[in-house]
TrEMBL record, chain A:
Its main location: cytoplasm. It is a peripheral membrane protein. Part of the AP-3 complex, an adaptor-related complex which is not clathrin-associated. The complex is associated with the Golgi region as well as more peripheral structures. It facilitates the budding of vesicles from the Golgi membrane and may be directly involved in trafficking to lysosomes. Involved in process of CD8+ T-cell and NK cell degranulation. In concert with the BLOC-1 complex, AP-3 is required to target cargos into vesicles assembled at cell bodies for delivery into neurites and nerve terminals. It comes from the Eukaryota. It is found in: Cytoplasm; Golgi apparatus membrane. SUPFAM superfamilies: ARM repeat (SSF48371). One of its GO terms (biological process) is Golgi to vacuole transport. Residues 628-702, 734-873 are annotated as: Disordered. The keyword Iron-sulfur does not apply. It comes from Calcarius ornatus (Chestnut-collared longspur). GO terms for cellular component: AP-3 adaptor complex; axon cytoplasm; endosome membrane; Golgi membrane; presynaptic endosome; terminal bouton. The lineage of its organism: Eukaryota, Metazoa, Chordata, Craniata, Vertebrata. The keyword Cell wall biogenesis/degradation does not apply. This is AP-3 complex subunit delta-1.
From TrEMBL, chain B:
GO terms for molecular function: clathrin adaptor activity. Adaptor protein complex 1 (AP-1) is a heterotetramer composed of two large adaptins (gamma-type subunit AP1G1 and beta-type subunit AP1B1), a medium adaptin (mu-type subunit AP1M1 or AP1M2) and a small adaptin (sigma-type subunit AP1S1 or AP1S2 or AP1S3). It comes from Hypocryptadius cinnamomeus. GO terms for cellular component: AP-1 adaptor complex; clathrin-coated pit. This is AP complex subunit sigma. InterPro entries: AP1_sigma, AP_complex_ssu, AP_mu_sigma_su, Clathrin_sm-chain_CS, Longin-like_dom_sf. Residues 1-139 form the AP complex mu/sigma subunit domain. Keywords: Coated pit, Cytoplasmic vesicle, Golgi apparatus, Membrane, Protein transport, Transport.
Length: 873, 153
């Protein structure tokens, strides 16, 4: 560029100031990078000049480039040069550049200590201000240590402008140099009652931030804050105080230190809620009241009035047309929900309305709320609404979210709210029609879980699954590579495992043997193969008992014909299982040819009941006394065997099968040994759930499934087409049923009571029955997941050892020790050179201050005089 | 407040202020990510986004987005007020502020921000005081500039 030609001339260099640079960049849109590298070259030239004005201009331009994303760390030293300029204009630019690009790793930062100290004690308040502002951005532990004392002195500066900045920066200093907290704290506390509102708010801010991390050290301040809260009128400060109050309170409630605080708080807060027009303050108050009530929910009799007030106000927020308020209203509502679900439930209409909102984030919040709002009564209704949304939803992420929420809602706390599992299964089946969902495995897991744990539903589940298998092509074809085919995994397993419930086993078997199956993912094919044999075994038994030998041989023949397609599979697992089974069946065929009855032996392969095992069961097995896990493996303690063989998941049936037979005996043995010693412990252990050989199982046998009237289902529900929305019919059915039940109940109240007692008995190991007792449609045995004897309590949450705020956990009420005083460094300024020694103790320094201030004043007046003169010129 | 970003509708960054120190690379990555998140949001949606363990609060004024990252416990509405107050301050200082004012006087925009917020905390809640501090320090600067513009060399 032409400019380069005259680089000797300072005047010309001045021409290209920041504005020119910005304009230049805007005019060179196509070759921006080239233009900028040109500019950087110019800037480098400028930085070599002696004139500070040129340098400052260059640094200013660099700062702009830095924002655009260019690296300017090479100019760090020049920035410091500009920082140390005596003119405020340049100093300001220098500090700005430093605050934008310096960080802890910048090595030249240590050169700035003295410069900053000089600026901090400058007679000009704006010099001090700019230094403080800059410091707030790039303070390092070293800087914090060296300057802590200077900043602390500034906290009692005469100008509120400096005071408030110093107070705020102290927070940064505390973070970098925690040792400074104790010596500085008394002064910080003083500032809470500073006459200037700005300083006061700064102090509140800092203490609030400090208390948030380590509340227990600040409990003693509670009365002071309480006073401020009732007297302050500044909304900004009020919000911070209220926030702090809630923090203190939350902590205070856990310790018996300030039990009255919460009660005291409620009143002024409710007053504020009534009176304020500022939404942000209202929101903060409501949040705090919620926090108060949560923390006091046990200790306080009733505050339904304040809860009601909160819920009302939140309703106003949610009904507001402003999306932000709506969002926050829902957010706060979900907090109330945790402790006072009843008061939120009455606003169900509003929340369902929010599901129709255009804003996805609001819909998601509403979904969260719904999760907590379901009860036995409204579950079906809510899920029905959600299903409608699933159909309408555009965008797979939101639909997937809906799907998981539906499943979460239904399965929460051990299926507590489901009264009709047939309905649930049909919901799950309907969900399989979703295209492109990633959550096939989730649906599959639910199907398996329900089928295994709810015995009464197995027959229905099997018939539904058989239909799924029959229509597998629908699922598998339109969802290539999509997760939904995972449900076939569940379907195949359920049909196989519970094949005794299958009505047309032949048809299902054929469906599983279709050539199309080989296009499914390997792990699903493997399950198919495994479960075919189960099916085959049960068909064989059926036929043999009926004496239809030919039919039995036919089915064997079918297997032998179709299995080779799996033997050729590329998937190892499929291949291995298929070839094993093929050989087995060929052997069976031979036996059949000799007219030997084989069914009993084949079925024996799959005898026994599979019980669900809690997901963390293995982890919770306690290490028995005397067992050294690191000991040699070939001389193990006697009881290690059973633990090693406990299957990890319910899916690994292979593993499970061979352990199945042995397990009970060893369990008995172990139980006998441990029971006496640990009975007491178990009784007190909330995580302990009784395992299968408990009295619970006996209930299943004696009163039995037959004993309880099972609603006739097959009449009204068409079971033909899968994917037909059937769950709606269940809703109707359920309503009728409940209605009938109610009538019955009215008639024979006495009888009902007895039944109820019986029911209580049955369920007491799971959960306490809710007040609204809607008797489930089926007798539902929710089998609890097996847990090892004497399960350990769940793992504690480890605290993050790297928490940067941990260092600030300091007891502030202890008196200061001499060793803790802030290091006072040698001042190289002219002013302080008079102090004789580098180690000036704190007290001495204070006494000297008035003198300094006087001097400053004089300086300032002189300065002003100068300025005026200049202006006159 | 962890940081404040100003960017245009085209995704061009106009101002960035960090109250936590991070390496440059990290900053760039975060900026890119956040701009993308916010620009992709519908106009009718709420102004709050959960992002990692922070919350983003943003608001659009004309063609500029103002975005703050706050902590979980902070008050979102208050942050919106902070943003609004900053815009008011800019407005007062520049007199009907527009994007170009901020582009061409970016250092001024920073100075105003510094008068308003220090280290991620609001320092001055009064508009009057903040603008006055700004004008005073400008006075100081202008006199110096005048002096500089008549150089002795």
């Amino acid at each position: 560029m032409a400019l380069k030609m005259v680089k000797g001339s300072i005047d010309r260099m001045f021409d290209k100031n920041l504005q020119d640079l910005v304009r230049g960049i805007r005019n060179h849109k196509e070759d921006e990078a080239k233009y900028i590298s040109q500019c950087i070259d110019e800037i480098k030239q400028e930085l070599k000049q002696d004139n500070i004005a040129v340098k400052a201009n260059a640094v200013c331009k660099l700062t702009y480039l830095q924002m655009l994303g260019y690296d300017i760390s090479w100019a760090a030293f020049n920035i410091i040069e500009v920082m140390s300029a005596s003119k405020f204009t340049f100093k300001r630019i220098g500090y700005l550049a430093a605050s934008q690009c310096f960080h802890e790793g910048t090595d030249v930062i240590m050169l700035t200590t003295n410069q900053i100290r000089k600026d901090l004690s400058s007679p000009n308040q704006y010099d001090t201000g700019v230094a403080l502002t800059g410091l707030s951005c790039f303070v390092t532990p070293d800087l914090a240590r060296d300057l802590a004392n200077d900043i602390m002195t500034l906290m009692s500066h005469t100008k509120p402008y400096i005071r408030k900045k110093a107070v705020l920066i102290m927070y940064k200093v505390f973070l970098k140099y925690p040792e400074s907290l104790r010596p500085a704290f008394p002064r910080l506390k003083e500032k809470l009652e500073d006459p200037d509102p700005g300083v006061q708010s700064a102090a509140v801010n800092v203490i609030c931030e400090l208390a948030r991390r380590n509340p227990k050290n600040y409990l003693s301040l509670a009365p002071l804050f309480f006073k401020l809260m009732t007297s302050s009128t500044n909304n900004w400060v009020l919000i911070k105080i209220i926030k702090l109050a809630s923090i203190l309170l939350f902590f205070g409630a856990l310790t018996p230190l300030e039990p009255r605080l919460g009660k005291k708080l409620i009143e002024p807060l409710t007053n504020l809620i009534h009176s304020t027009s500022a939404m942000s303050l209202l929101y903060e108050c409501v949040n705090t009241v919620i926090a108060v009530l949560i923390s006091l929910s046990s200790g306080m009799p009733n505050h339904s009035a304040s809860i009601q007030l909160c819920v009302q106000k939140l309703r106003i927020l949610i009904e507001d047309s402003d999306q932000n308020l709506k969002y926050l209203g829902l957010l706060a509502m979900s907090k109330i929900l945790k402790t006072h679900p009843k008061s939120v439930q009455s606003h169900k209409d509003l929340i369902l309305q929010c599901l129709d909102d255009k804003d996805e984030s609001i819909r998601l919040r509403a979904l969260d709320l719904l999760y907590g709002m379901v009860s036995k009564k409204n579950l079906m209704e809510i899920v029905k609404k959600l299903m409608i949304h699933v159909d309408k939803a555009e965008g797979t992420t939101y639909r997937d979210e809906l799907l998981t929420k539906i499943i979460d809602i239904c399965s929460q706390s051990n299926y507590q709210y489901i009264t009709n599992f047939e309905w649930y299964i049909s919901i799950l089946v309907e969900l399989t029609r979703l295209e492109g969902t990633r959550h096939g495995h989730l649906i599959a897991a639910q199907m398996l879980d329900v089928a295994i744990r709810v015995k009464a539903i197995r027959k229905f589940a099997v018939s539904q699954m058989a239909m799924l298998l029959d229509n597998a092509h629908l699922i598998a074809s339109n969802t290539q590579r999509n997760g939904i085919c995972e449900v076939l995994y569940a379907a195949a397993w359920i049909c196989g495992e519970f094949s005794e419930h299958l009505e047309e086993a032949n048809q299902t078997l054929e469906a599983m043997l279709r050539p199309k199956v080989t296009t499914l993912p390997g792990h699903i094919q493997a399950v198919y193969v495994q479960n075919m044999v189960k099916l085959y075994a049960s068909i064989l038994q059926q036929k043999e008992q009926a004496g239809e030998k030919e039919a039995a041989q036919e089915i064997t023949q079918l297997m032998i014909e179709r299995l080779p397609q799996f033997v050729q599979s590329a998937d190892l697992e499929v291949q291995e299982r298929a070839s094993c089974i093929l050989q087995l069946i060929k052997y069976i065929q031979k036996l059949q040819a000799k007219e030997v009855p084989v069914a009993e032996e084949v079925i024996a392969l799959f005898a026994g009941e599979l019980n669900p095992v809690a997901p963390k069961a293995q982890k919770k097995v306690p290490v028995p006394e005397g067992l050294d896990l690191d000991a040699w493996i070939n001389e193990p303690p006697s009881d290690s065997e059973s633990e090693d063989e406990k299957p990890k998941t319910i899916f690994h049936e292979e593993e499970q099968r061979h352990s199945r037979h042995r397990q009970p005996e060893i369990d008995e043995e172990e139980l006998a040994r441990r029971r006496e010693a640990r009975k007491q412990e178990q009784a007190n252990n909330p995580f302990y759930i009784k395992s299968s050989p408990s009295p619970q199982k006996r209930y299943q046998d004696t009163p039995g499934v037959e004993h309880i009237p099972v609603v006739q289902i097959d009449l009204s529900v068409p079971l033909k087409v899968p994917g037909m929305p059937m769950s709606d019919q269940y809703v109707k059915l359920e309503e009728e049923r409940r209605h009938k039940q109610k009538l019955e109940k009215d008639k024979k109240k006495k009888k009902q009571k007895k039944e109820k007692r019986g029911k209580h008995h049955r369920h007491n190991s799971l959960h306490t029955e809710s007040e609204e007792d809607i008797a489930p449609a089926h007798h539902v045995d929710i089998i609890t997941e097996e847990m090892p004897e004497n399960a350990l309590p769940s793992d504690e949450d480890d605290k993050d050892p790297n928490d940067p705020y941990k260092a600030l956990d300091i007891d502030l009420d202890k008196p200061l020790a001499d060793s803790e005083k802030l290091p006072v460094q040698r001042h190289r300024n002219v002013e302080t050179l008079k102090s004789p020694d580098s180690e000036v103790p704190l007290v001495e320094k204070k006494s000297k201050k008035p003198k300094k201030k006087e001097k400053k004043h004089k300086d300032k007046e002189r300065d002003k005089g100068k300025k005026k003169e200049k202006e006159k010129k | 407040i962890h940081f404040i970003l100003l960017f245009s509708r085209q995704g061009k960054l106009r101002l960035q202020k960090w109250y936590t120190t991070l390496p440059d690379k990290e900053k760039k990555k975060i900026i890119r990510e956040i701009i993308q998140i916010i620009l992709s949001r519908n106009q009718k949606t709420s102004s709050f986004v959960d992002w990692k363990d922070l919350k983003l609060v943003y608001k659009r004024y004309a063609s500029l987005y103002f975005c703050c990252a706050i902590e979980d416990q902070d008050n979102e509405l208050l942050t919106l007020e902070v943003v609004h107050r900053y815009v008011e301050l800019l407005d007062r200082y520049f007199g009907n502020v527009c994007e170009l004012d901020i582009i061409f006087n970016f250092e001024k925009a920073y100075f105003i921000l510094d008068e308003f917020i220090i280290g991620g905390e609001v320092q001055e809640t009064s508009k009057k005081t903040a603008v006055k501090a700004m004008e005073d320090s400008d006075m100081l600067q202008e006199t110096v500039e005048e002096y500089m513009n008549k150089p002795a060399f």
